[in-house]
Amino acid sequence: MGEHTVASFDEELEHIDRLIRDMDELAAAMVAASIRALLASDNAMAQRVVSDDAIMDARQRELDDSAITLIAKRQPMAQDLRAVVGAIRMAGDLERIGDLAKNIAKRVSAVGQSATPRNLSHGIDTMADLVLVQLRGVVEHYVSRNAGALKELRADDQKIDVKYTAVFRELLTYMMEDPRNITACTHLLFCAKNLERIGDHVTNIAENAYYVVTGQQLPADRPKLDETTMSAPAT
Amino acid sequence: MNIMTEAGVEQKLSSGTNAPSIKMKGEKVSVHYGEKRALFDVDIDVRENQVTALIGPSGCGKSTFLRCLNRMNDTIDIARVSGKITLDGEDVYDPKIDVVELRARVGMVFQKPNPFPKSIYENVAYGPRIHGLARSKAELDGIVESSLKKAGLFNEVKDRLLESGTGLSGGQQQRLCIARAIAVSPEVILMDEPCSALDPIATARVEELIDELRQNYTIVIVTHSMQQAARVSQRTAMFHLGYLVEEGATDKMFTNPDDKRTQDYITGRFG
Description:
Chain A is mainly alpha-helical. Chain A has a single domain, classed as Methane Monooxygenase Hydroxylase, Chain G, domain 1. Chain A has helices spanning 7-40, 43-74, 78-113, 122-143, 147-155, 157-177, 182-214, 228-231.
């Protein structure tokens, strides 16, 4: 895409894109750190994630301000308009991802207090890896305007759903085995649920990014494989 | 402002009314000014009771095309129009067509308000009088009043109808010119940048008016304001260097146009 006649218009759009990249990097760092803190019962690291969330919120406010000002000043059209509106929405999802990472971090001390075998959280570890690949990939594909990769990435969310179902069942068995595990496992279950929600936010980002890049909406139906809601009453 | 979306148009379809029919049609319209070719084989449909916006950078041919629709180019000696333009299926360049009558059916509003240096009343009454549309003074008064009302000007000028039209503000003058165009009961109204000399409030009034007029008239508007085209029109046609680049539903043209040149123009990347 060529440059605007007014060069500062390009700079303003670039600034918004840069904020999205910053927020994505921060979100990925927060998720990774919250899971490491969880696995290592590292309260100091968990505390850093909690304080990082304030930075995330500030970034989102900065992006909102920049986007609103750009709309007021430039009245963007077509792909520019899609980019600005898309950025506002993507920033909303990234901010929520930050909140969910913070929530995981807040549970670190609670899980650590109950003497739980470390292996309870193996499934969560691999689930977090899947989530991080998605989270880092989505903005990368957005920046490189790769619509095909965004579409694939969105479909890949089902891998996280499958993993979540497995973790859910696993934690349920631990709780049935020994009621003393219930407190820790419940917290871990919330952590797993948070990761699953983060996956959904990444899916939203992919959909928005796809729209910004192509001007087309992805079809609404997406494969869903979270079976916990169905299997829960049966267990 | 109430902008009819494509969805709205579809609603109209499902409720039993026909799709907007073609009021005017251009087929392979070309214009030469002397040796210079200004327009290249433009094919375009103007749909009834819709606003069609013509956009594009200066010199792209949009005003030239607009002026073909009521043969305003006839007034330029060196202009030569080829191709076919029809109004309700009738060739407007047919030698048998009475040009004066054609311009009553296809009225025009210009960039700068150009009221006659006469009273407000006379500005509106002039057209109906020379076209013999009123048989009595009372009937003429009625036409003047209803035209001024349709143009949204009546309440502001009803107590000074005999004062000069040139004493009105710019926005009022433009609405007076619209009233003057409406007075001869046209079917199509052509507008050549009708708001470019107006302030934002007067512009908003005229845009509101365009939306109301659409119920009874077919409107073709040339505008340099992209936002205006997006706000007032249902169809948008993009011109560049004398060619019609792309024509389509306004909603799509301003969110996701097909042609790169349209995209570059509406996003401010050239022009």
